[in-house]
Write a structure and sequence with these properties.
mainly alpha; 2 domains; 7 helices
């Protein structure tokens, strides 16, 4: 599990929480929680003054629901489909009709 010291060293190196999470193999919101002690969803949020004093970003809400990846867009999936088509004479015949 990642430690507060690891996260704080990476933030000191000016990495954002998305990159810190990627490097540590954890979601960015969890990296934020470990490094700051505060949830990224805005719960228990400190005042703007306290955020500045602690060196926290103005908001961390975007870290709690990072974007999703569609696994069907992977190159390995496309190769698998192409191989299935090559192995299926009926599919090849249908493809040549188009």
């Amino acid at each position: 599990m990642a430690t507060r010291q690891q996260v704080q060293q990476m933030t000191a190196a000016e990495l954002d929480y998305a990159e810190i999470g990627r490097r540590l193999g954890i979601p960015p919101g969890l990296a934020h929680l470990i490094g700051t002690g505060l949830p990224a969803d805005g719960g228990d949020a400190p005042s703007p003054e306290e955020r500045r004093a602690r060196g926290l970003p103005p908001s961390a809400q975007d870290l709690s629901n990072p974007g999703h990846e569609n696994p069907t867009g992977r190159t390995t999936v496309h190769r698998w489909i192409a191989e299935r088509v090559r192995a299926d004479a009926q599919m090849r015949a249908a493809g040549s009709q188009v």
